[in-house]
Structures are given as C-alpha cells and as structure tokens.
Write a structure and sequence with these properties.
mainly alpha; about 75% helix
C-alpha cells in the first residue's frame, strides 16, 4: 500500500519534490533542472506503469549520466577550495569502482547471482526457483529440489515452482511425486506449455501413453513453435503404433527447428516403419549433417540401407556407429547380420558366375547377377550385367525395369527414362511404368511433365492413392493446384 512499507510514501514524496524542484529551478538553474528531468524522463521510457521488471540495474545507466553531471556541478559550486571538491569526487569514483568490481564477482555466473538475490530477498520465491533451475542445469538435481522446496514454502501456488520441482523429481526418477507436482502446475497455470510437456514425459515413464499424448498435444496447441513437445508427441504416437501421426509431429518439429538432429533422426525412424525408405534416408542424412557423431542416426541409416538392398553402405554406417560408441550392442548385431548377408551375396555371385560359365547365353542369370551387384552397392557392375541380359533378350520388361531402377539410383535420370519408355512401347497399358516416369520427372523438378505422366498413370488404372500422397519422389509437384485436382475425391 501507500504506507506499507513506509519507504513507498517517502519515495513518492521525494520524486514529486524533485520534479517540483526541477520546475521551480527551470528558469534560474537550467542545468540543474535539466539533470533532474533527464533522470526521470529516461526512466519513463521503460520503468513506468507498463508491466516491466521493477528493478534492473542497467535501466539506470543512461538516466544517471546527468545525475553525475549534477554532482560535479554542485561540488564545484559549493565546495571550496577546489582541491577538496576534486578529492571528494575522486574518492566517490574510487569507492564506486570498488563496488563495481565487487558486484562483478556476484555476476560471474547464474548461481552466484541468484544466491546473492536470495540473501537479499529471503522471502521471495523467485530467487530460489532460479537457483534450483541453475543447479538442475549443472546436474545437481538433489540440491535443486531443496531450493524448489524453499520456493514452494514461500509461494505454494507458484505454477513455475511446481513445474520445476516436478521436472527435478522426474530426473530423480521419482515418478509419482513428479506427476503430483506437474499436475498441480498445469492446474495453477494451465497456459504453461512447458508444464504440460513435462507432465507428458512423466506419464510416458508411467506407461500412461494416452494421457501423455493429450499433454503433449496441449503443449503444442499452446505453443505451436515448441519443437521439443512436437518431438515428444511423435515418440508417444510411435509407442501406440500411430505412425502417420508420428510422421506429422516429427515433421512439425523439424519445420519449427530445422537444426533439431533428434527430431530428424526420429522422423527417419518413423519413415522406416512406414516403409518410406528414400525419405528415411534423407532425414537421417539431415540428422548427421547437424550432428556427425550421432551413433543412433548412423545405425538407423544402416537399417534403411539394408532394406534398400545396399549392404555395402549399410555396413559402413554400422561401423561408424560402433566407432562412436563401442558398446552399442544393436549396431554390433546389425553389423554382424549385414556382414553375414554380404557374405551370402558374394557366395551367390560366385554361384551365378559358375552357372554363367556353363550357360553364357542365359539372360536370367545375368539379370540375377545384376540384382546381386545392386544389393552389394555396385551399381555400375549391376548396370553392366543388365545390359548383357538385354543384349540376349532385348524385349524383357523385367530386365528393362531393373536397368531403369539402377540408372535412377545413380541419378542418371535420362537413361532411366529411356528404359521405361521402351517398356511402354512393349506394354502400353502398364500403369506402374507411367507412374515411375512421373516420379523421375518430379525428381528433376520438371513439374509439368511429371503431372502429365501422373495423369496418364491414373488413366491407365494406377490407384495407389496412399503412395501418391506420401511418395517423396512427388514432393516437387505436391504443392501444385493441378496435383490437388488430380487426387481430389481420394482423401487428398
């Protein structure tokens, strides 16, 4: 109130008195008047009835310049002889310099700053909350909990303190107590996204995934730019098998924070579960560009490459994962399995080569050998074998298609298109081939041609709408109005 504490009334009277003095001296003592009004005029900019921080030292820096001038002016006017004025001003500067140095020791880090605040304001909750947060960052969770307890004794209805206490207890694996505090936090402050996110994390540990999903959903509704909550929502959705939802959530996380390596990795994992291996590889490579020593991303990339049939590159990824973390058992098992698969491929290559020596005019054997080389990651060798097969059986649609796939994998799109168009000449009604041509044109960002061939595929009976809507090869055409018209009526 105005009189509690009494300093409030004293301060108000002082301020009004100084402003009145400035107005009274405006004509006779213009510099003195200007110094007083300068101080209050500058404070009005950021320290007024507008809800800003009540005390911030730096807010006095500019206003104080004229106060310093006023002190010097009055000292030289009223203190005689001058050397006494100089001595007093110099002493004043020296004392304040010492205090500034002393104050710097308080500001040397967050912990010393907030500990100083708690000593000077022992009845305020906020310093204790911030000490706890700093200790949490330093992984001293048990000490942090003590300070959060002090804060809650002062202000039991602080949503921030309840949230911080709950999160600290969660880190200590005290799940039940963590949930109690976090539930209290969201009840007191329902608009705090962080509290909903932390409650979701606690509920995940409790295996209450449905409630966790609701909490994460609330967090991202309150703050659509909360990438961590989007990532946590995706992880929870994966736990329930809702892969499509997880893909959307992880995609939102990387859209909000493009440098979020974990979200890229999780999105890659979701695409693997969905069977979208090309997009999975793209996301995992994005994660590794951000964080090259990300062992889990290397391991997942290896898994995606195995499923793509590229064992050689997969083995490289598993080895890199193990070089980062030598105790990574999953990567070790995957490496052993991939090496075993590679041995089997090499054995199969030797077997096919033996068969070819006995039957050198057999196109099926060359085609099989090409497929084995492709699995081994030897695309040039694979292409060579497919060409040999076609020299014997130029009208084989299967071999032409395999050769086109190998060319596309190498990025030689024109050669791939040439093979696919040969298939159309042989089988004009093959809808899948029209679709594959559309995908290759889309990869080249030739949008008009891609849409034209996609329409032809649909006209020929291609109706795999789920693939059309998710295939990463069609990403370049998916934003066009014509694309939306093509898939209208099919959940597009």
């Amino acid at each position: 109130s105005l009189i509690n504490p009494p300093t409030t009334l004293i301060s108000l009277v002082t301020i009004l008195g100084l402003v009145g003095l400035a107005l009274y001296l405006a004509k006779k003592e213009r510099i003195i008047s200007f110094c007083i009004l300068w101080f209050f005029g500058n404070l009005v900019i950021e320290s007024s009835v507008i809800g800003l921080e009540l005390v911030f030292e730096h807010r006095n820096y500019l206003p104080s310049t004229m106060v310093c001038l006023l002190i010097v002016l009055l000292a030289f006017r009223y203190i005689k002889p001058k050397w006494i004025a100089i001595a007093l001003i110099t002493s004043f500067i020296a004392i304040n310099s010492a205090w500034t140095y002393q104050r710097n020791t308080v500001w040397q880090d967050e912990l010393t700053l907030w500990q100083d605040c708690s000593k000077k304001s022992p009845l305020k909750a906020r310093p204790y909350i911030n000490i706890g947060v700093v200790l949490g960052k330093l992984n001293n969770t048990s000490r942090a909990i003590k300070y959060f307890s002090k804060a809650l004794k002062i202000d039991p209805n602080s949503g921030e303190a309840c949230n911080d206490m709950g999160f600290a207890l969660l880190r200590e694996n005290n799940i039940n107590d963590a949930i109690k505090y976090l539930e209290k936090a969201v009840k007191i402050t329902p608009g705090m996204p962080k509290a909903h996110n932390n409650l979701g994390l606690a509920l995940v540990k409790k295996d209450d995934i449905k409630r966790a999903i609701k909490c994460f959903s609330t967090a991202v509704r309150l703050d659509p730019l909360y990438s961590e909550a989007w990532n946590n929502l995706g992880l929870a959705q994966l736990r329930t098998g809702y892969i499509e939802g997880a893909v959307k959530s992880f995609s939102q996380a990387v859209k909000v924070t493009p440098g979020y390596a974990e979200a890229h990795k999780n999105l890659g994992a979701a695409f693997i579960k969905e069977g979208n291996l090309d997009e999975a590889i793209r996301q995992l490579n994005s994660a590794l560009k951000i964080k090259p020593d990300y062992a889990k991303a290397h391991n997942l990339l290896g898994i995606a490459l195995v499923r793509k049939g590229d064992l050689a590159d997969a083995i490289t990824q598993f080895r890199v994962a193990l070089s980062i973390d030598q105790y990574y058992l999953e990567a070790k098992k995957n490496l052993e399995a991939a090496l075993s698969g590679l041995v089997k491929i090499k054995e199969a290559i030797l077997r096919v080569k033996d068969a070819l020596r006995a039957d050198p005019k057999n196109p099926a054997l060359y085609n099989e050998l090409g497929g084995l080389y492709k699995k081994e990651g030897e695309l040039d060798m694979a292409i060579g074998q497919y060409k040999k097969a076609l020299s014997i059986s130029p009208g084989s649609v299967t071999i032409l298609n395999n050769l086109a796939i190998a060319y596309a994998a190498k990025g030689e799109y024109e050669k791939a298109l040439s093979q696919l168009k040969k298939i159309i000449g042989l089988r004009p009604g093959s809808a899948d081939v029209y679709y594959n041509i559309a995908c290759i044109y889309s990869r080249q960002n030739k949008v008009d041609k891609a849409l034209s061939w996609l329409k032809k595929a649909m006209d020929k009976g291609f109706n795999n709408w789920a693939l059309i809507k998710k295939d990463p090869d069609l990403e370049n055409v998916r934003r066009t109005r014509y694309y939306r018209q093509l898939i209208s009526g099919h959940g597009g």
